[in-house]
Specification:
With 596 residues, the chain is of the alpha+beta class. It has helices spanning 3-25, 55-58, 235-239, 324-332, 348-365, 368-382, 384-399, 401-411, 415-429, 437-456, 497-501, 505-518, 527-543, 549-572, 579-595, and strands spanning 68-72, 76-81, 86-96, 105-109, 119-127, 144-146, 157-162, 167-175, 180-189, 195-206, 221-226, 229-234, 251-256, 260-265, 269-275, 281-288, 293-300, 303-305, 310-321. Strands 6-7-8-9-19-15-14-11-12 form a 9-stranded antiparallel sheet. A hairpin with a 4-residue loop joins strand 8 (167-175) and strand 9 (180-189). The chain starts with a helix and ends with a helix.
Length: 596
């Protein structure tokens, strides 16, 4: 390995260690729940060009007592409150909060006044002209169910409300087998004058979510798509919106001509309002400072209903897990760029295909841990031509070491002369000293892309492998503290000093395989570089000890395959690595350092 390649590896490794160490030791601060105001002021859209409605007209009261309609589908369970027709009680049947057998289901939507973080969706109409808010359905309207059935994929639910002034509102709600509701809102005008109204849908979160991770690698907060353009805003960004005169709050507005959706996302789950394909609307995101409510609204075009006529509008509500296959189905049905609700990151051109390959392998094997190892083998095979050239170049560089030593002896302190003669030697022997760098450079985006895949895709959440490894998105559950599960107490909690000190099996394997891989080549002649190379595997072992198990599985597999590749390729070109000799030299150097 030439000095240029060693310097590149050293720079990459140290940079990676600094980045990982910084976020491990100094994670972003979690939001303080005490700073949030648990109030219930919800702002529906202002009517026409009028300012936003007053608090008295828009208060979404707690729902301690209300009649509810049960939701029962293969993947959802919960209920709709007839007060306001609110979607505020929803759990996901396929997902639990933890891997424990007695864990509760994931609660995605929760009512105001309950024990959990208030988060709900509601639909209604804003008045125009002579109408006022009391004459249209709002957050606290008492709807009546037509019939008595539960909401299932086979049985839609119909709600009715008569305003007593000539307008009869009907809402028909249907749900599919996955996570999408279709809301058909209609208004019948039995009066003798035409009326105009603006239909809307609102998603509201009271304060920031309790489980907000606020980690730089995963977007949490507002996500929207307008005619092919994706927008992501954190909760903090929403509080910094410019105050809108019309809304009376910090707000951002975007027009959608044909296809769009808007909502809130966590790392794994999302709720979003979706316009029907081909129908435009206005997407509005805003923060209500006094109540600390984050809102995402979909405002559809004004509807004018003539006397004796009925008009209706449709929209959709998605409330579920960001499964790639499920989002793809909705995307195929016309919901544009819905799979981009998954945060693919800067390297999306690598992250997405890497995930798709991993997902395909998992579909064949059925175990995500083994699938990661197969993916590692696939990626190494894909890069084998480059790796081959790199290792061949390194072997040939090793052959040139005697001649390089002579050049250094002849050149003495004349570094310019040495560089010129070295370049001449490279050209004569047809050796590229930089050839060993390319595979290392390609590893950087691949590593971060796979890290992104493991960190943000729900397919890795609670994915089991073998033995006690039952969540590949979580750190190694084993620990030296309990002799890797042999003693009857739990390992230290991830992220603590104890967890860092008492490492698990995977971090130890990672450090060991990295150390052996680095023994394929002699230590650098420079004592400082040699010391850094000796300690680097063990530093990385502790830095990556708290990372996801799936990522460590990949890196261990990558180390083993890289070691095997390099050893075999260099051996076939007459430059078999002296692994044990390098280990002995490394140990002697360490002893020499101590004695010095």
């Amino acid at each position: 390995m030439d000095d240029q390649t060693k310097n590149l590896i050293l720079a990459f490794a140290l940079s990676l260690a600094v980045i990982m160490g910084w976020f491990a030791l100094f994670p972003p601060p979690e939001p303080d729940p005490s700073e949030s105001v648990a109030q219930s002021e919800l702002l529906p859209p202002p009517a026409g060009d009028a300012p936003a409605a007053s608090a008295a007209e828009t208060t979404a009261t707690p729902l301690a007592q209300t009649v509810r309609v049960a939701i029962e589908t293969p993947r959802l369970t919960g209920s709709i409150a007839l007060t306001g027709g609110r979607f505020d009680d929803l759990q996901l049947r396929d997902y639990t909060e933890t891997v424990d057998d007695d864990s509760d289901l994931v609660h995605l939507l929760n009512p105001v006044g309950g024990e959990r973080h208030p988060y709900y969706a509601l639909f209604g109409w804003s008045p125009r002209g002579a109408l006022d808010y009391a004459q249209v359905p709002g957050p606290n309207t008492e709807w009546t169910q037509v019939g008595s059935n539960d909401l299932t994929p086979e049985t839609p639910v119909s709600l009715r409300w008569d305003n007593g002034a000539g307008l009869i509102f009907t809402r028909v709600i249907s749900v599919d087998e996955d996570f999408a509701f279709t809301i058909d809102q209609s208004v019948e005008n039995t009066s003798d004058a035409a009326v105009s109204l603006d239909p809307y849908g609102i998603l509201a979160q009271h304060s920031q979510p309790d489980d907000l991770q606020a980690f730089f690698i995963s977007h949490e907060g507002l996500v929207s798509m307008a005619d092919g353009s994706l927008t992501e805003d954190s909760y903090k960004n929403m509080t910094n919106y410019t105050v809108s005169e019309r809304e009376g709050t910090p707000a951002s507005q975007q027009s959608v001509a044909e296809n769009g959706w808007i909502g809130f996302t966590s790392k794994y789950f999302m709720a979003s309002l979706i316009g029907m394909p081909g129908q435009g609307f206005t997407a509005v995101s805003q923060h209500v400072p006094g109540a600390d409510i984050y809102q995402a609204s979909m405002r559809q075009a004004t509807v004018t209903v003539q006397p004796g006529a009925t008009s209706s509008v449709q929209s959709m509500l998605f409330t579920g897990a960001k499964e790639f296959a499920t989002l793809s189905e909705y995307e195929d049905a016309g919901v544009e760029r819905f799979t981009d609700a998954i945060d693919w990151g800067w390297f999306f051109f690598l992250t997405r295909p890497i995930f798709q390959v991993l997902n395909f392998i998992h579909g064949v094997i059925g175990n995500m841990g083994w699938s990661i190892l197969v993916l590692t083998l696939f990626l190494k095979a894909l890069l084998l031509p480059l790796a081959w050239k790199s290792y061949v170049s390194m072997a040939r560089m090793k052959e040139l070491q005697p001649e390089m030593a002579k050049l250094k002896e002849r050149a003495g302190d004349d570094r310019q002369k040495l560089q010129q003669e070295m370049m001449t030697l490279y050209r004569e022997k047809k050796v590229n000293p930089a050839a060993g760098c390319l595979p290392i450079l390609l590893q950087i985006p691949i590593f971060f892309s796979l890290y992104k895949v493991i960190f943000v895709t729900i397919e890795l959440r609670h994915a089991p492998w073998i033995w006690v490894f039952n969540d590949l998105s979580a750190p190694d559950p084993t620990s030296l503290y309990n002799l890797f599960g042999m003693l009857p107490w739990a390992a230290p909690e991830a992220g603590t000093i104890m967890a860092t000190a008492f490492l698990g099996i995977l971090p130890l394997l990672f450090g060991t395989t990295m150390w052996f891989q680095m023994r394929l080549n002699p230590a650098p002649a420079d004592p400082m570089q040699a010391m850094i190379f000796n300690w680097m595997p063990w530093v990385f072992m502790f830095v990556m000890g708290g990372f996801a198990s799936g990522l460590l599985i990949y890196w261990i597999g990558n180390n083993i395959i890289t070691f095997t590749q390099q050893y075999l390729i260099m051996s076939t070109h007459g430059a078999r690595p002296d692994v044990f000799g390098n280990i002995k030299a490394s140990v002697k150097r360490k002893k020499g350092d101590k004695s010095g």
